[in-house]
Amino acid sequence: MKEHWTSLASLMGVLAFLTSILHTLFPPELRLVFLGLIRRLTRNFLSSYSYFDITEIDGVSTNELYSAVQLYLSKSAAISAGCGTRLSLTRQVNSSAFTYTLSNNDRVDDWFQGKPVVWEHVVVPRQNGGSFSWRPLPDEKRGFTLRIRKKDRAALLPKYLDHIMETAAEIRRRSQDRLLYTNTRGGGMDPRGHPWESVPFKHPSTFDTLAMDPTRKEEIMADLCAFANGKLFYEKAGRAWKRGYLLYGPPGTGKSSMIAAMANFLRYDVYDLELTEVHTNSELRKLLMKTTSKSIIVIEDIDCSLNLSNRNPARKKPMPLNEPPVPEMRSNAVGMDDALTKSITLSGLLNFTDGLWSCCGNERIFVFTTNHIEKLDPALLRSGRMDMHIFMSYCSFPALKILMRNYLGIEEHEFDNGILSDLEEAIGKAEITPADVSEILIKNRCLEKCEAVIKSLEALKCRANKSKVIGNVAVKTKGLEEGEEEEEQEKRALESPKEAKGTMVGCIGKEEKEE
Ligand SMILES: Nc1ncnc2c1ncn2[C@@H]1O[C@H](COP(=O)(O)OP(=O)(O)OP(=O)(O)O)[C@@H](O)[C@H]1O
Ligand SMILES: [Mg+2]
Asked: Where are the annotated segments for Disordered (predicted)?
């Protein structure tokens, strides 16, 4: 025991001697550096932990990892902070979410793959007269120190940092407004070289408000979920992480509403690609390269966006130089012909969705919509091209119930059985789109619930009778001479705007045929 006391006394003596040398040899500011060095050396060689400093400013640029850790801890700190840990609360501009961050010089524990790690938020005043910087630096030096067990370091660190980056990106995405992009500059770029313009995406349509068969709706939602969570599957299967949906059906059946519901469900940005503004395949590729991951790329009315009538024969007439090139979709090869005509080809479009370029980015959904699936080139429809074909049909009975809930606030159990079967019969006969039903319901929404239902039922019955009459007229016209048929079509066009649209499409189709 006596020996122990003697060695402790001599150790103290040595320490006192070293301290006096330190005081004599080093001025106060160098002394701090020296002590820090000693601390680090003992940390590195004697400790069973590894320490990593992640500073806010790395040289002159902002350290991306610092902001990622800050965001990551805003999630895990809130969950795992003990009672002694202090958290700062913040809310970003344009965000409805509150975030927690670790207060200055406080610590928090985290677990990853069953292993403990400790984070410390180190904030020290920046010393004047330090290193020169051409831009003003904050008064405080901020950084995080990560403490991790030496034995876990190799296995844990890379995966843990990846996990932090991914979580932070997800939090950022969730707390910010999503965007709706469009390419209306006709291939032009903004000063930062972006071909897309954007506005906040605020469409209120959701799968809850979308009126369609609930089983089909669930299928689509399950498909979207499987896609969004399918990173590993796509990697293993050697497939690009993307999915294509073709939405088709008459106007007003909810194709655009479905796209908005998809975007809101997955919280993806939307790129609304206006094909008529794109003049060449290479322009199309550039646009694709500038889209971000976790987005839906939409081409609406694909049959109208491109001239399909003369897609196969090669262009014979030379293009007038002063005329802008007309976008055209052809299934013939690209190459020289493409360069000469300066137009989009079908193969260009297919490359856009399917080819090597479609993989420059991850987790993207392509959605095409059309009112006339029969007009599309079979190359676009062949299996594997668009993964899911979704038919948006006239309003069915289950869809009507959803619309009644949305617009009149009436749930199914509130309906009288008699009314329910009347509604079912009327909607079955009416052949009416959800858009038209919505119009009827909007008109009646201020009435008392029961009255609103009765009025809506009357309107539906009226439409059902009209459809019956139109159906009969259509059967009759089959036997008429061609001149008479046109007259009859005009009469029908005057009777119903829905029919008018159909008639006009019919005429255009005929002209094209004659050409
Ligand atoms: N299935 C639906 N569920 C809910 N609302 C719908 C549905 N279909 C249409 N609507 C209503 O009708 C309006 C028009 O619908 P939407 O624009 O989605 O139709 P569309 O199929 O894209 O039509 P178009 O082919 O003319 O582009 C929407 O604002 C929406 O309120
Ligand atoms: Mg639409």
From this structure: 479-515
